[in-house]
Amino acid sequence: MNMTLNTVLVDGQFDPSFGEAGTVRLDKVDPNGVLLNPETCITDPMGRIYIAGSLGDGPNYNNYFCLRLTSEGIVDTAFGIAGYASGSFYNGGNHDKNLAATKIDILADGKILLTAALYNPPTLRGLVRLNLDGSLDLGFGEDGKVVIDFTDNDSTNAPSPRSSQDQQHSGTLALPDGKIMLWKDIWSREEIYTVVARLHENGAIDTGFNQTGFVKIPGIAGFKETYVQSILLENDGTYTVSGFCHPVYNQILSMVTRLLPDGKTDLSFADNGYLILSSQDYRLSTAGAIRQTNNRLLAFGGATQHPESSGLLISREVDGSENIQFNRGLPLITHLADRRLAWRGALIQSDGKILVHGYSEAEHHVTTTVVARFTDAGELDPDFGAGTGGLMFELRSSSLAWLKDNKVLILGFESDGIVIRHFIARGLLG
Fold first, then answer.
1. 3-state secondary structure of 276
2. Could you say which of 149, 182, 217 is where a domain stops?
3. Which string of DSSP letters, residue by residue, matches 324-336?
4. Which residue from 137, 211, 225, 302 could staple onto 342, CB 3.0 to 4.6 Å apart?
5. Looking at residue 110, what DSSP letter applies?
């Protein structure tokens, strides 16, 4: 069963107690006079806001930055230098490739882990660990930084030159024991695949993971292109890996697999370790997965039927079988009339209801942020969004973080075609 969101969604309201009328402008320069390009945001248990991305002059963004705001949206000058921590992985030389912090993790001890995209060469990913005051944690890697080359484990499958432009899928998962999962897609001459690495708390490669510290996804033949979007740590220590694959040209299938703690594929999961979901009418791709009630798996993403795109939710039992209590076991495809839609994140409330967020795009590339709520049976919640089941915030988001007290933090931007203005906003969900 598919469903359609009310075409006249209620406009989302911003929290007037945050910044100026609910928003804080971020397009100002940092203390050194360098332009900011925010990419991602998160909050810590104290409600402080962290924003990270790249900074630089003109088209070249060669440094990462991390900015901390108070819960009220004021720059926290106790962090870094005047509220900012920044640096580079490059020591001298002329590097004309972009560098950016693409993810923030707040660790159990309060330290801040930044994941950075390095495009020189594009097979690299960097990690930076900061102390609570924004200084580099010298107990991590070399001077607080770690660089991982995802081709080190496979010299026979060297990356293709096209990878410098096309590699986009990567991520990080900070584990409770201090270890770190890190993954990245690699474009070889024969195929596109994802490599998952596991690091020790100090940033060293964990060779207890598949003996080398690296695992290639997929571990079975048949997929010419495979992209990992998220990894979820289970209570038994296994890892649920979700994403999408292209078995043949112009076909996209949703993919879920599971790794054992030692990095081997869990062959007891689904069909020989892999759950592949397809549709006759749609191209399915999952952007991530979270745990529902009763330890079920909820994958979220998009369903494409050119030129239309819709939101996608898939609920599965622990073993990968269909959860017949959610949309009768079928993928739930949600349309938003006259707009393209895809879910980018999800949260399970204490009552089991499902909050999802994503972007919608109308004609002329007018993009808004949509937040919707479903019951655990896969039905739009009539008690949300004034009966429509959804809210629409008139801004384009690059990152979103769920907050307590029925609020949401949106890192967004707007453009007039010449100037891009960045800001952080706090939205009200009810």
1. strand
2. 149
3. TTTGGGS-EEEEE
4. 302
5. S
Tell me: pLDDT of 91 over 70: no
**Each residue of 285-332: pLDDT tens digit?**
888 999 998 889 999 999 988 778 899 999 999 888 999 999 999 999
Distance between CA atoms of residues 289 and 196, nearest Å: 17
Q: Which of 126, 149, 172 is the last residue of a domain?
A: 149
| Pairwise pLDDT comparison (340 vs 263), residue with the higher score | 263
Q: The domain containing residue 282 runs over which residues?
A: 3-33+158-428
pLDDT on residue 137: 97
Residues 233 and 246 in one domain: yes
Pairwise CA distance, residues 293 & 277, whole Å: 22
CATH number of 189's domain: 2.120.10
pLDDT score recorded for residue 311: 94
363 phi and psi, to 5 degrees? -65, 155
Residues 221 and 267 in one domain: yes
Residues sharing a CB contact under 8 Å with residue 127, sequence separation 6 or more, in sequence order:
113, 114, 115, 116, 140, 141, 145, 146, 147, 148, 172, 180, 182, 199, 203
Backbone phi, then psi, for 275, in 5-degree steps? -110, 115
Phi, psi of 164 (to 5 degrees): -65, -20
Sequence-distant (6+) residues with CB within 8 A of 120 are 90, 95, 97, 99
C-alpha–C-alpha distance, residues 77 and 69, integer Å: 8
CA–CA gap between residue 308 and residue 177 (Å, rounded)? 43
pTM (predicted TM-score): 0.90
